[in-house]
Amino acid sequence: MSTTEARAGREREAASLPVARAGSRRASAFLARRSLKAHRRAWAAVFAAAGAAAALLGAFALVIGSLLLAQPPVERYAGADAVVAAGQKVSYTAKPWGGEPATVTAYLPERVRLDRGLVAKAAAAEGVASAVADDSVPVVLGSGAAATGRSWPSAALTRYELTGGRAPGTADEVVLDTALAPAGTGPGDTVLLRAGGPARPYTVSGLARSDRDAGPAVFFTEARLTSLGGHPGTVDAIGVVAAPGVSPAALRASLDAALPGRAGGGEIRVLTGAERGEGEHLDALGGRGDLLALLGSVAGTVVMVALLVISSTLAQAVHQRSAELALLRAVGASPRQLRSAIGREAGRVAVSAAVLGGIGAVPLGLLMRSVLTTEVLPLPVPVWLPFAAGAVGAALVALAARPVAMLAARRITRLRPSVAMAAAGAPEPGDPGRVRTVAGLLLALAGAGSAGFATTQGGQAAAVAASGSATSLVIAVALLGPRTARVAVRVLGAPLRRGAGVSGFLAARSTAAHVRRLGAALTPVVLVTAFVCVQLGASSTLERAGDRQAAAALRADLMVTGPAGGLPSGAADAVRATPGVAAATGVLRSAVVLAHREAGEPVLERLPVLGVTADQLEGTLDLGVTAGGLGALRGPGTVAVGADRAGSLGAGVGDTVELRLGDGTRVAPKIVAVYERALGVGDFVFPREALTAHVSAVRDQAVLIRTDGPGSGPVASALREALTPYGAVRVGPASDGAVRAAPATSGEDDAMIVIGVGVIGGFALLAVVSTLALISVGRRRELRLLRLVGAGRGQVTRMLLLETALVAGAGLALGTLVAAVPLTAFSVALAGSAPYMEPARYGVLVLAVVVAAAAGTLLPGRRGR
Predict the structure, then answer these.
(1) How many CA atoms lie within 13 A of 702 on its CB side?
(2) Helices 761-778 & 780-788, crossing angle to 10 degrees?
(3) Where in 410-566 does DSSP place strands (E)?
(4) Where is average pLDDT lowest: 174-183, 482-491, 670-679, 731-740?
(5) Could you list the residue ranges that cross the membrane (predicted)?
């Protein structure tokens, strides 16, 4: 053959390649269209799973996007052009194991105040018309209504205007908010107010009204408010009004130049525009950061669950067509054509499901947002966000479906035609394959190792390790599905054969012959059981342990509590002076920030703490001291530490511990006692005087009382009489809630439980229904065959019921076992006890799983019976 002829042959071959590829694509598209119509019932289950996954992913994208955009509302400072406030963040830099130095930040829970001398500097800055010191104190009217006490000059910052009367001119005059003033009250009248002590009368010099909802206020003279605030050298914030024509950017630059330096170790911030709300709501952004971290963790679980459900459903849909694919392979279809056809089918189903799921993500995301939004941090939803969030969820599902389906079809499509024909009639393989088995075993070992690591850690590190353990074990069960199903059949199959007659025999033989199918059915049941048990069990365990320790620590008979702002100063002294009171301990709540390392990583942990009147502590609280003594808890340089926290810090009695108080002040108090009941009262207990200069409001939240008589009734009556000048205070039996360092569950925790259990648990239950429905659709020929060979309709129905019971029972048992491993590690590490879950909650979970399994098995299979 000449060179010319060879070249011409190569050119013809090259020209024919695009034609051949186009023909292959047309063949794949034809197979996909025909198969999609023939298997629409099977694809319906995939459609449901993919749509739900897209809705769930899009909803989380919407909530996370809304949180990233959230800013505290501007209400109190609506009339200010800028707000000068101290920085509310602290940072900690450390070098992780084998890495570069890393810096973490945390928001401070108490207000960092500014030097009062900065007010004059701000007023002298270029472009400033006026600068006003803004302080506040809690105030209670004689009627019991709570309000905020402010200075009259600061009324301009909230756009208050007098509707009658005049500004206060003396220390015993006030201006009342019209929303707060009792009916008929006007200038010249007298009102009874409690602000920092017993109630005393004030003359109403005027009434004022604002167009902003910043909460009811009472306005004093600036000198009187400074005296009531108790910090004459500092101010909470500075409100600045710009001169006409000065832009926010120019005002910020001018103030930045006029106010150099730092306040309390944090930078001085100039806030303009939407940032002004940060000066009002101290912890709003801190709460946003905590929520983002929680949502990020849950969102990672959602992605894992969604991919696991989609891949399991697609794999089962493809596996049910193994005989058909083998036959097509035997008659000449190429592996590439078959994989392409399966991918096209899955892609079309997933795209349509993802579009509907993306639309459904909007109402679901808005529902989740309504659970998380608060008055201090409303979550905005700009017009573009729902579209973007829905598109994200839809894109993730649509992009994942095709490669997963092609991978699931890989085993049967790569067989030679002759082998494929034999495989079409071969029994269902019972083993998951070598790669899946090895991967499943490795993940099971990793899950067990993470659980073991969690027992050696504390705090967030233990929670993260336990969560990683649960995730690894759930995926391991999914990969080892056929093997776990075989164990379940061996354990539960014998009772079915012996005790359920013909139907039991059929159910046992059917499950034993199709362990791969049973493994696919077990996976979503294990998933929902493990996920819900971990979510509910962790919170229930800590709540129960904390309640028990707080109750064990309480020695008081009575307690005095007040309004939300706390008890007026002097109330605790009045209690101690009451006859029959043997000991009285004031309880001041605050928080500290602890800088330390967990697993080598730098961590800033915010911990609630108690400040107590230490000289009478032993009569009202028993902390379970194991070393040292509470008698030495005196002065600002001492602290008592929980045993677990002391152990994690490697510290003991006589050592010092470095902390940042609520306002960022660095301290290194000496440990004078180590105690056991830290879950009940917190990791640190301070003398009250160590915290008073570092809290936003020096108000005891309760006074614990130990009486010295045979009964507390007469003492309670005497206390009510002694506390009459302090107004709305309550005397009642002591409860452990007064000594709990923090609520057992916060509002954020409750919201995350609702989202985690309600939304994700609901999706997992839908996965149970869709997976079992898919399996039931593929069994219709099997059920018809049983009817043809003589099985009665009732026998077949009872067989399906028994199989449902086996799937639900085995899945619940495996899921509970999977959850028990990380939960036990978590409980031992943090509570020192076995995990606990309320029986009623577990009962609801069992009922939901049984109903979902029955719906997925019986309803689709009714035609085959």
Answers:
(1) 19
(2) 50
(3) 558-561
(4) 482-491
(5) 42-69, 291-315, 349-372, 384-408, 438-455, 461-480, 518-538, 751-778, 799-820, 840-859
